[in-house]
Specification:
Blueprint lengths: L1 H13 L9 E12 L2 H4 E16 L2 E14 L1 H4 L6 E14 L5 E12 L6 E12 L4 E12 L2 E13 L1
Antiparallel strand pairs: 1-2, 1-8, 2-3, 3-4, 4-5, 5-6, 6-7, 7-8
């Protein structure tokens, strides 16, 4: 529902925008360090994502993204019977703002993260971050990301390296 509302607002707002910028897709590889309680059992997060950003004003974009993140289990926890990884599929929408048009940006997204584990359910996902878009279509971003459900949270500090087109 959140994605539908944001998409509708995006397309109606873009008709009023004086920006000559166009929407862009990006595909990226992700790596992260588990934080909080997640770092006790997991040593690394790997994944990928697809993102679309649509201009709503000069330097301001609405974003929609989806991806996959695997939290890789530490070897001593594998020996105790835990799976080698747990997977999450985050689907988020948010805002991205380019500071002074020089490539630096700030971004915040909200959404849901769907567990790939049987009975894992759905968690509330949020991720603020910063990054830089380079000439030639490449982008690097650093973000804090958390999936919260029933009072517990799975967190990471993630790095996304992407190609924008």
């Amino acid at each position: 529902l959140l994605i539908v509302i944001v998409a509708g607002a995006t397309f109606s707002a873009s008709a009023q925008s004086s920006s000559s910028e166009t929407g862009k897709f990006s595909v990226g590889a992700e790596v992260g360090l588990p934080l909080g309680k997640a770092k006790e059992a997991y040593n690394l997060v790997v994944g990928g994502s697809l993102k679309y950003e649509h201009p709503i004003a000069t330097g301001t974009f609405v974003t929609i993204s989806a991806g996959y993140n695997a939290f890789l289990t530490k070897s001593e926890y594998k020996d105790l019977g835990l799976k080698s990884s747990i997977g999450w599929v985050p689907v988020k929408a948010g805002l991205k703002y380019y500071f002074d048009g020089v490539g630096f940006f700030g971004e915040a997204q909200l959404g849901a993260a769907f567990s790939t584990e049987t009975g894992g359910g759905t968690a509330f996902a949020y991720s603020p971050g910063v990054g830089y878009s380079f000439d030639g279509g490449f982008e690097a971003g650093l973000r804090y990301e958390a999936y919260s459900k029933s009072g517990s949270s799975t967190q990471q500090l993630g790095l996304r390296l992407a190609y924008r087109f």
